[in-house]
Automatic annotation (TrEMBL):
This is Dipeptidase. GO terms for biological process: proteolysis. GO terms for molecular function: cysteine-type exopeptidase activity; dipeptidase activity. The gene is pepD2. PANTHER family: LD30995P (PTHR12994:SF17), SECERNIN (PTHR12994). Its EC number is 3.4.-.-. It comes from Lactiplantibacillus plantarum CMPG5300. Keywords: Dipeptidase, Hydrolase, Protease. InterPro entries: C69_dipept_A-like, Peptidase_C69. The keyword Lipid biosynthesis does not apply. It is an enzyme of class 3 (hydrolase). Belongs to the peptidase C69 family.
Length: 470
């Protein structure tokens, strides 16, 4: 209904270099500019309020009590809806919502979408402040879908310190969720991703009430045996093979370079085991990729250069890697690495979950261009790099490397100091440290912009070398 185009990565704790869980997504919209802000909602108690969507008329009472939580909403709410998208709550439960997915006409015939049901624009608001675990998030959202229905197909990402879950809602009321094994990763890209469902394994699968009976009654299973969720509820068409499956292929190619696969295959696996352990930087690279070092890279002049839709796009409004670490105390363990720029060209900044507010440059995004705003600053940087890609890309690569080093040092130093604090004192410390980090990164981005503008002035085609002897 109001679906967006995104790319998702999920990683279990034994598949990462440091034992953390990770969920990650590019939040892509229909236009290059859909301004967002990054805020923290305080905890609430005794509230009496109803949520009403300006997009589809969905209406529901909000629970009286809710946890503090991060959110990345639109600033043009009346025109574009709220869409709070991603964030941790104070229990270190991460939610990223949503990866748009598409059910097929056979299943939607018998369980059509509910026009005024719970859509992406309202989903994080109805979910993130009210859950205590990743698994509990799936259960809670399942109850909401049973009660209100869904007007669209959505994939929702959850993580806590132990678990990573991916939930796909594909018709008005039916869904399946799968726990990503601890030693595995998964990539999804706007196509139903979950494959074989084991209904005898409730520890690793959850599903809507009656889904097996629904499929049997309406003769929806095309396979001779088993329950392949993708085959039953998903699509397999020409658009998928140009828009969706190549992104999954590239992510799997990066994590498993030893495996040869067809970028247009409809049978790319959902659950995968990487050739090496995965870092935050690895996930950031994939989210910022555009078929790098292949003939499909749109920056090349090959016949195939624009055959497939890349992962990183100018329409990516925010890209995030939500990490819950297990090697530091819980009060400082959850970090959301996020960029407002095009992820191919802009750095991911680490924001702690345990903060009371965000820096004004992230929290107060204006509608029009303003270099004091993080949203506009990093989108400006991205546009400048792309405008002279061949001449500027190495400068950008060097800049991003320096950022990763400095930000890694920031996290390590903050961890060391934070370990001595607790309670409100720790929250205040992390809040202030994140603001210091934002300021340093702002100065660094502005310096690169100045460097590139200066360099760009020498690249003008409106130049002429004058011989002074003439």
């Amino acid at each position: 209904m109001y679906e967006q185009a995104c790319t998702t990565i999920l990683v279990g704790k034994k598949a990462t270099v440091d034992g953390s869980t990770m969920i990650a997504r590019n939040d892509d919209t229909f236009m290059p500019i859909t301004p967002q802000k990054f805020i923290v909602h305080p905890a609430v108690h005794g509230r009496n309020e109803t949520l009403t969507s300006g997009k589809n008329g969905f209406t529901a009472p909000l629970p009286a009590d809710g946890y503090r939580y991060q959110a990345v909403p639109n600033i043009e709410v009346a025109e574009k809806g709220v869409f709070e998208e991603n964030g941790f709550n104070e229990k270190n439960v991460g939610v990223s919502s949503t990866e748009s997915v598409y059910g097929n006409e056979h299943t939607l015939t018998f369980d059509p979408f509910v026009p005024n049901g719970l859509a992406e624009d309202s989903l994080p608001t109805m979910l993130t402040p009210f859950i205590d675990s990743a698994r509990g998030g799936v259960e809670y959202l399942g109850q909401l879908i049973a009660k209100y229905g869904s007007p669209e197909g959505n994939g929702v990402l959850f993580n806590d310190k132990d678990d990573v879950w991916y939930m796909e809602i594909v018709t008005g009321h039916h869904w399946v969720a799968q726990r990503i094994p601890d030693d595995a990763y998964a990539v999804a890209a706007n196509q139903v991703a979950i494959q074989w469902v084991d209904f005898d394994d409730p520890d690793n699968f959850m599903w809507s009430d009656g889904i097996q009976e629904f499929v049997a009654e309406h003769h929806l299973n095309p396979d001779k045996e088993g329950f392949n969720f993708r085959h039953i509820f998903g699509t397999d068409n020409e658009k998928d093979r140009h828009y969706n499956t190549p992104r999954v292929w590239y992510g799997q190619r990066y994590f498993n370079p030893e495996i040869e696969q067809d970028p247009q295959s409809s049978e790319l696996p959902f659950i995968c085991h990487a050739a090496k352990k995965i870092s935050v930087a690895d996930v950031e690279f994939v989210l910022g990729s555009h078929y790098n070092e292949t003939k499909y890279d749109p920056f090349l002049n090959t016949p195939e250069a624009k055959k497939f839709r890349p992962i990183s796009m100018n329409r990516t409004q925010n890209s995030h890697v939500m990490q819950v670490r297990n090697d530091v105390p819980a009060e400082q363990s959850a970090i959301m690495w996020m960029t407002f720029g095009v992820p191919a060209f802009a750095p991911y900044l680490p924001f702690h979950a345990n903060v009371s507010e965000t820096d004004p440059s992230f929290a107060n995004t204006p509608l029009k261009h303003d270099m004091n705003s993080a949203y506009w600053l990093y989108r400006t940087l991205s546009m400048i790099v792309e405008s002279h890609y061949a001449d500027f890309v190495q400068d950008d690569i060097d800049y991003l490397k320096e950022c990763r080093i400095e930000l890694g040092q920031f996290v390590a130093a903050t961890d060391e100091q934070a370990a001595k604090l607790s309670g409100d004192e720790l929250t205040a410390f992390l809040t202030e440290q994140d603001k210091v980090m934002v300021a340093k990164m702002r100065d660094k981005a502005q310096a690169l912009i100045g460097q590139l503008v200066t360099k760009g002035l020498t690249l003008s085609k409106l130049t002429y070398n004058v011989d002074i002897n003439l």
